[in-house]
Amino acid sequence: MQSPTNRWLGHGLYALIMAVLIFGVYFSGQRINYNWHWDRLWPYIINTEPQDIIATTDGTAVIEGQSKLIIQPDVGTDPQIVTRFDRLVVMDGDLIFQGDTLARIEGWRFGPIAEGLWVTIKISFISLIFSILLGVIFGLMRVSHLQVLRNLAVTYVEVIRGTPLLVQIFIVYFFIGTVFDLDRFTAGVAALSIFTGAYVAEIVRAGIQAVPVGQMEAARSLGMNYLQAMVNVIMPQAIKRTLPPLAGQFINLIKDSSLVSVISITDLTKAGREVVSGSFAPFEVWFTIAALYLVVTGGLSWAIQRLEKRLAASD
User: What function is annotated for this protein (predicted)?
Assistant: First the structure.
């Protein structure tokens, strides 16, 4: 047990090291003559400026009631109908040209960085669920008594672990996605799930094999069949052993999700690239992106640690 003095000394030393690192980053920016503009970043996270609604065609404004604006086009195209706005800029009967401001929406809205963060969380969470299902299925196949199941599982694991995720994303999107008519998001989820599932399968296999053989024999001697023994005796013990490596793999999944930007999914990484081109604040953007990834992975790590402690307390 650490003494209170040593513990506080350790905290103080940690704070000193972190302060040195932060000042090191700041003075490095000064050394390369970089001007920090954190104020430019906020509108890309939460935008409080009014949003203009722009005319998409030439025509005449027709206002119906208090909540509907119609732009009747001069040529035979479909009219532009606007039903969501807070303040009109045009009046009934005004001549409208393409690019004119028609109305404005007041209030705040999420910027591209916040929207990209949501996409990253959503695609990571869905991929995590499917990767667990694939990992458990193929992990059980790896320890099956049927040779054909073991061969199929080994093939899946070795092929997926032996090829880069970026290549797999391209194959899933351009080949499998074309055959089955998958959209970008579904293809991204499928690629991440298949890739992570192979690693989860090996973690599950190792966890099952770490349980003493006598546990299975004892369960079978009590009258359980193989499936009952696996579900009620072996898997609960294996899960406790696999939680730490699973946590690391799921954290890698969140970070690997940044690669889906190559198929034009606007996740956090792709949103960062777009914001850099518009804000001209690359260091601020990428430090913010890194911090948001850290928040997500840290939250997942904390949740798994809590689950691990709860399972340990139930022994």
Answer: Part of the binding-protein-dependent transport system for glutamine; probably responsible for the translocation of the substrate across the membrane.
Q: Can you say whether residue 267 is alpha, beta or left, with left for phi > 0 and alpha for psi between -120 and 50 degrees? A: beta
pTM comes to 0.79
Between CA 128 and CA 143 the distance in angstroms is: 23
| Rounded CA separation 97/54 (Å) | 10
> Has residue 194 got a pLDDT over 90?
yes
Give the model's pLDDT for residue 190: 95
H or E stretch covering 157: helix 147-161
| 92-123: pLDDT as tens digits | 888 888 888 888 888 778 889 999 999 999 99
Q: Give the residue-averaged pLDDT of 1-11.
A: 77
In angstroms, the CA 201 to CA 186 distance is 22
Residues written for the chain = 315
Residues 6+ apart with CB under 8 A from 70: 61, 62, 63, 64, 79, 80, 81, 82
Domain 49-107 sits in CATH 3.40.630.30 = no
Please provide residue 144's backbone torsions phi and psi, each rounded to the nearest 5 degrees: -70, 155
User: Which position has the token pair 């193989």?
Assistant: 226
Q: CA 188, CA 172: separation in Å to the nearest integer? A: 8
